[in-house]
Structures are given as C-alpha cells and as structure tokens.
Design goal:
By secondary structure, the protein is an alpha/beta fold. The chain has a single domain (5-297), classed as TIM Barrel. 43% of the residues lie in helices and 12% in strands. Strand 1, helix 2 (30-42) and strand 2 (47-50) form a beta-alpha-beta unit. The protein is globular and about 55 Å long. The two termini are 26 Å apart.
C-alpha cells in the first residue's frame, strides 16, 4: 500500500504517525458532555462527534459555542438506540414503513434489525437532517462518522459516501486500503467489494481518507494507560482514528450504561500527563478533522 498522500499535504513525512483522538457519543447524556469540558481543556482530545437526535444535544451545542476552534466537532450519524431504558428516535419520521423505528417508536437497538428493515431513501433523509440540524445550530461540522458502525452495510455505506460528498465532509468510517488489508479487517463478500470501490472512488475525488482505526474497548476498564501505550506503540505510519467514549462517573451513566466503568476509564486516561509525555517521547503527532475537511474544500 502506498503511503497516504495526505501526510505530505499536511507537511509530514511518509513515515510519520498521526493520531486523531476522537470522542464518540457527545450529546448522548450529561455525563458525556461534562467530560468533554474537562478533556478539551487538558488538550489531548483533538476531535469529537455529536449525536444529534439525543436528549442532551442542545447542551452539546452550547459546549460548541463555548469552545469555538478548540475542538473539531463532527456528526456521529445515529441510526441505533441501544440502551434498555434510555432511548432516542429519528428526526425525520415516525412512520414504521421507513424501517428506522422499532415497535416502541425508537431507533432499533441493534444493527441487524436496522439493516433488515431500513428503507434507503429514509436513511438518506435522516442522515441529511442530522447534519443540517447541526449546521443550523451553529456547529462548524468537520466530519461525519457512524454510531455503532451502523452504516457499515453494503446497502448503507454508499449512502454515507454520497452524504460526505454532498456536504464535503471527511467520511471517517471509510478507510484507505487494498484487498489484503480489508480482508484482514474482517471484510468479505459484498461488503469487501463495496468498501474497496468507495475507498478508491473517494480518494480519486480528493477526499482525505484515514489509514487505520483503533479504540478503547467497552468490555474492559482496567490498566487503561498501559493499554493506551501498547496501542500507540504498535501504530504503523499513516493517520489513525482513535475512538473512545469518556464520561464522568455519575448516577446517570451508571443507570444508563452497563459498560459505564469503561467509559469512566476512558475519561481518566485522556487526562493523563503520563500519556501526553509518552506520545511526545515516541514522536506521535495529534491532528484533528478540520485540516482534512479543509483539504476537500480548498
């Protein structure tokens, strides 16, 4: 695989290692939003994405207005509502024929139900409405990604790519790659074919694509700093999207999320001077998504 041409465009060498430290699920709950206030001041986080349909979205908008130019905020395109007793619904419809809602009127909890039922036109409209609402709220949207990777399906990934083209936004979910790399990542069949085609098309059109994706697991929570160091040490050259789900430790998040310990661990590790020093010592550079968006638009 040839080096990512974006490295040179940003003034780096082909062998440099760049990381986008990315916070998912902003706007999902108060605990997530409160964590962002602390993390953005500490300075390791370089990117985040907001869940527009969620109950704490307006508080996230206020955060963006308080921290203009301090964080690259994308839209965490949302088509699932996974929690047992804390749910959200589409912006665009309440019609069961859309395939976007379950029998309770919320987004489906899991991807298989969504993938089986979703109407493609309804998906496109919902994604467009989420981005347009963020823009109308005054958020300077820098990229788009996918909550629970729900758009990682042969019918839905082309819609995601089209929306990225429409709004001229980096599509964080679609990575650079060749067939060997995609197969190593677990893609096969129609998904492999669609993923390769879209990656090649978008890169040929000038969209800056990322090379790798890493993230903190939500089924473990101990030894986060050592875990982070090991993951960063193993990073290859190129641009890595490194995701996490940090929150404060509150009664809300404990009641809402069975994996709350992992989310709280993500918060603490990203406030670590030890981790900051490790990155400096090992020559790992941090970037956000705004510079990638600007490559598309300029």
């Amino acid at each position: 695989m040839q080096p990512n041409p974006v490295l040179r465009k940003l003034g780096f060498a082909d062998t440099d290692r760049l990381v986008i430290f990315h916070v998912d699920d902003v706007g999902s709950c108060q605990a997530a939003n409160a964590a962002m206030d602390d993390l953005i001041e500490f300075g390791l986080i370089s990117s985040a994405a907001v869940m527009v349909p969620c109950p704490w979205y307006q508080d996230a908008v206020a955060f963006c207005h308080r921290h203009v130019d301090k964080v690259d905020m994308g839209v965490h395109l949302t088509l699932n509502s996974e929690w047992e007793n804390y749910r959200w619904s589409p912006l665009s419809t309440r019609d069961p024929a859309s395939g976007l809602i379950d029998d309770q009127g919320y987004f489906h909890r899991r991807q298989p139900a969504l993938h089986a039922a979703a109407n493609e036109d309804a998906v496109r409209l919902e994604l467009q409405m989420q981005i347009n609402r963020a823009l109308a709220s005054g958020i300077d949207v820098t990229h788009i990604d996918s909550h629970m990777f729900a758009l990682g399906h042969p019918r839905l990934l082309p819609i995601y790519a089209d929306v990225a083209r429409q709004f001229k936004l980096p599509p964080s979910v679609i990575l650079r790659g060749d067939e060997a790399r995609f197969r190593h990542a677990g893609l096969d069949g129609e998904m492999l074919e669609v993923g390769l085609r879209l990656a090649h098309e978008l890169e040929a059109e000038g969209f800056p694509l990322l090379d790798h994706v890493e993230g903190f697991r939500l089924d473990t929570h101990e030894h986060r700093i050592e875990e982070a160091k090991n993951m960063l040490a193993a990073l290859p050259a190129g641009i890595t999207h490194f995701y996490m789900h940090p929150t404060h430790d509150t009664p809300e998040i404990r009641a809402m999320a069975p994996d709350w310990r992992s989310r709280v661990a993500d918060y603490h590790v990203m406030l670590s001077e030890e981790l900051r020093g490790y990155m400096r010592e090992h020559g790992i550079h941090t970037i956000g998504n705004r510079v990638l968006r600007d490559l598309i638009r300029h």
